[in-house]
Amino acid sequence: MDCEKEAALVMSTREKRKNTPHLLVVDDEYFNYEMLEVALSGVFELSYANSGTSCLSNAIADPPDAILLDVCMPGLDGYDTCRMLKNTPETKNIPVLMVSGLESEKEQKAGFDAGCDAYVVKPFSMQSLLEKIKSMV
């Protein structure tokens, strides 16, 4: 491949990445990320964090367009992570969608009280999740 074609390919790849919304998926179970990656990678650029602490550092270093945040994680749980994201100047405007198997009104209220922009209960349909994400980014 000559230099001009290679440069054009690099530029088109960068342009595509620039125009593709970036989602940070935060879940202590990597399998959940893999399922989301298969379902959503055609529409979004996905990256992964396995804890609340790594979510915070990743979100500051490479701000995503939205964060899909699991509630039940060891250490810093989703609620505390969301509070920290919403109280950090560099991350406070990033939409946070909490994803959880906890479906009670009390749990959902706790998510919104922590600052999440949306709350989705597992199991969910990929179509409804996709629509929620698209409404946020």
From TrEMBL:
A Pfam match: Response_reg
Record bears the keyword Phosphoprotein: yes
Domain Response regulatory per the UniProt entry, residue ranges: 22-137
Listed InterPro entries: Bact_response_regulator, CheY-like_superfamily, Sig_transdc_resp-reg_receiver
Record has Cytoplasm as a keyword: no
Keyword line: Phosphoprotein
Residue numbers carrying 4-aspartylphosphate: 70
Gene3D superfamilies for this protein: 3.40.50.2300
Any one Gene Ontology BP term: phosphorelay signal transduction system
Protein's name according to its UniProt entry: Response regulatory domain-containing protein
Organism listed in the record: Pseudoalteromonas peptidolytica F12-50-A1
Organism taxonomic ancestry: Bacteria, Pseudomonadati, Pseudomonadota, Gammaproteobacteria, Alteromonadales
